[in-house]
Amino acid sequence: MKMSRMFMQTLRDYPADAEVISHKLLVRAGFIKKLANGIYNYLPLMWRVLKKIETIVREEMDASGAQELLMPFVQPEELWQESGRWNVYGKELMRMQDRHDKSMCLGPTHEEVITFIARECIQSYKQLPINLYQIQSKFRDEIRPRFGLLRGREFIMKDAYSFDTSYENLELSYKIMADTYTKIFNRCGLETKMVQSDSGAIGGSVSHEFMVLTDTDSGENDVFYCDCGFAANSNHTTSVLPQANTIGSYTKLEEVSTPNVKTIDEVSQFLNVEKTVIVKSLVYVADSKTYLVLIRGDRNVEEVKLQNAIGANEIRIAQDVEIEELMSKNNCTGKAGFIGPVGMKNVDIIADLTTKEMKNFVVGANKNDTHIVGANWSDITANVKFADIRLAEKGDFCPVCGKPLKVTRGIEVGNIFQLGTKYSEKMKATYTDENGTEKPFIMGCYGIGISRTAAAAVEKFHDENGIKWPVQIAPYHVDIVPVNVGDELQMSVAEKIYDECIAKGIEAVLDDRDLRAGVKFKDADLIGFPYKIVVGKGIAEGVVEFKNRMTGEAQNVTPEKVVELIKID
Hints:
Elements: H1 21-28, E1 32-36, E2 39-42, H2 44-63, E3 67-68, E4 74-76, H3 77-83, E5 95-97, E6 103-106, H4 111-121, E7 130-139, E8 154-164, H5 167-187, E9 192-196, E10 206-213, E11 221-225, E12 231-233, E13 254-257, H6 264-271, E14 279-286, E15 289-296, H7 303-310, E16 315-317, H8 320-329, E17 348-352, E18 361-364, E19 370-375, E20 384-387, E21 406-420, H9 422-426, E22 430-432, E23 438-440, E24 442-449, H10 450-460, E25 462-463, E26 466-467, E27 478-482, H11 488-503, E28 508-510, H12 517-527, E29 531-535, E30 544-548, E31 554-557, H13 559-562
Parallel strand pairs: 3-7, 15-17, 17-20, 27-28, 27-29
Antiparallel strand pairs: 1-2, 4-6, 5-6, 7-8, 8-24, 9-10, 10-21, 11-12, 11-21, 13-19, 14-15, 14-16, 18-19, 21-24, 22-23, 25-26, 29-30, 30-31
Helix pairs in contact: 1-10, 2-5, 2-10
């Protein structure tokens, strides 16, 4: 490809709405162009990257025994009603009606459709096991699409679904996919860690995510792991806490005036107590129902865990007016900042396990500028459910071996779920076993974010000058830059190197633009070509410069030898 003919426009500045580096660089380097909030055009450079990732995915999925198909992007309401997800999936499901007033949706995922296919096409155990996959666009109407391709509304995904006759066989299918995923991401130049995760709206009893560890602030989630092999996403991590005092020194239940004291730090300092003897009270709204949530004062709530403990589809922190309404229903006069469980009756309470063994603790008194000291669980009359709703933190210990957990940042690029019979039972998708008995399929679900994988590579590999694509998924392998296109010798050598690359199957770009060399060099680094060959004044001495973008190493070499240095496998 000649750069003068390439459909590409690099920008001087980052887009104003971009927060993470992959979003900033992919826009600035001319890979994507925003069409609407959370919806992007994939420009030619980006499309080349995505097609390479797709090719790797297809080759490894096919090698695993999976078979590719393509399911409709638009799905009928009836299937989602059968599965029970039409009314519970949430506002992320983009619903619509066709001209016949039939309700439809844009597919955020395809469990219902694939279960329909299995129900209609698989009758006997002799047809099992089978794994079917597709690569296509999905749509989820995210409330806050952000981070570019990491959390867009429209995205490209590979999703696969396995059908087995037993949970033992599901375990085998699950392991095959886990091994396949490792091969896929390794081939993409990305080291991943398989971590325990939450199943979310897809469901299932067991699930794992494949996370690209970024070791920077650019990741989406904290990933906790241990040398013993334990690894989990922050929304699924269980941990052992360091020893702490959880028995307060106030042994008598009484109210204490705490003027203008609201935060845990302020309460701790004012009452001269440790934060570990304070019970923090928060109010959440889950599916329009209000809950009082309790956790030890030095810890924080993990909202996915809380959502699962409640069994809600959506949760959010309550607004001050909603907190005051709750207190009013319980004949309390306080405002937000002084709420507590003592005296509360008309509310369900979810308490973290960190609070279960606490005694003589401090809580809000449901009165302005007042707290209660010396409280115990016997003083609380509302219904209390204890659950692990705590966010793991640095300094916690591994639940398997007891050693300190390590924490880093990560980006999810793939996930695998053991669905079991969640969909097959509800949708009456069955096969006939060897005894002639109808049984529901045992299902698994396996997803890879194609566009997310590209963005994760940028998050992982970049510097202050731009992207550093792994050679396996780079849009082109090498950029050949003649410093002065008006110099006949430089241009003839550059074109000869370019022709040799093309002949050997190396994807090359010849920057034949009549621009200053500095502009060309900046574009090369910004776009992230794995290799750069500079044909400049050194050609008079018979050498060109060869530079490796990933390592930064540069060397002078003869034009006859330079192509040999390009490694694309």
